[in-house]
Amino acid sequence: MAPNKDTSKGKREAAAARRIHAVQLRTAGASYRSIGARLGTSHVQAFKDVRHALKDRRIELGESTAEMIALEGERLDAATLAISPRVMSGDLFAIDRWIRISESRRRLLGLDAPKKIAPTTPDGNAAWQPFDPKRLRHLSAQQLEQLEELLAVMNTAVDDEEEEHPQKPHESRWKDV
Hints:
It is a single chain. This protein has six helices and no strands. α2 crosses α3 (about 45-55) and α4 packs antiparallel against α5. The termini are far apart. Mean pLDDT is about 80; it is low at about 170-175. It has helices at about 5-25, 30-40, 45-55, 65-90, 90-110, 140-165. It is mostly helical.
């Protein structure tokens, strides 16, 4: 017996509606397990539904990256839509949020031109030159001795600081850098 075209069409429409709902839930931050539970499917099916629904919106990157970009785009769209009435009414806080959302979208899509940063010396006047150990050969014995003393003082200062402010093993000294 041949399958009924109406039944087949109804299943496709139900699946399409389920996929749209799955993307909306995922956009709102729901896990695949909670999406599956809400839609009466498994978490694997929820993942497949979201993946299938985002397939048309993929950017030609790696699949998972494209899916995340599409998902983040959906989230930014939802946030923009939510604050647009307040933006149109002139609410300065909402306008600030809209600008931040727009900046996020531009970064996500790579629309901003990269900033060119030229390395310079600490004073900013000359082009920075990488350290070349060969340049040490030209130092006199006195200059090498002064350099060793300077390094010893710097190491002592670092050691003293570590004694005054011991770090826990999992903390980095450079966490703010």
